[in-house]
Amino acid sequence: xxxxxxxxxxxxxxxxxxxxxxxxxDQDALFKYWSDDMVTRYMNxxxxxxxxxxxxMIQLLNSLFEEKKAIRWGIYSKDLNCIIGTCGYNSGLxxxxxxxxxGYELGREHWGKGYMAEALKxxxxxxxxxxxxxxxxxxxxxxxxxxxxxxxxxxxxxEGLLREHGFYKGRFWDEYIFSLIKTKxxxx
Length: 188
Fold this sequence. Notes:
The chain is 28% helix and 33% strand. The protein has helices at residues 27-34, 37-40, 51-66, 115-129, 145-153; strands at 12-13, 17-21, 71-77, 82-91, 99-106, 135-141, 157-168, 171-181. An 8-stranded mixed beta sheet has the order 1-2-3-4-5-6-8-7, sandwiched between helices. β4 (82-91) and β5 (99-106) form a beta hairpin.
């Protein structure tokens, strides 16, 4: 991986969205999303109870970029002029890794409008073309049909069930693994 890619936080733009670094001013909006049972239902975090948790998460996500370990973009609506969710690469950014894992979430009031597909297409293209990834993976909790459907639309293939793969919210969870390979169905 070219370390120059980490000199400045990458900004991605689509027709309706700007993907850019999350800032502390996004604390209130992200707290609203991350404290919503429906948004966090399939996430590896428990719903937030205090706004300081949102600020701590923003700082953690930004520090992971500074440490060259992860990239988490804020998804900003051009029309609404606000953050509506986040997406990014949770792992795989180390040199010569070529495989990364993605994660994403959207505020409930923005579901069903195609925002996440639009954001992920841009993010996946960036991963293949600038991060030089060969394989992008996503882990989806059993029961998260919306996420599985989104990944299928984007060309991901479900490879199998990983029994008790995730441990969060005090228990083990079965997760499906999905992958997208650069040479197959590249969205770039």
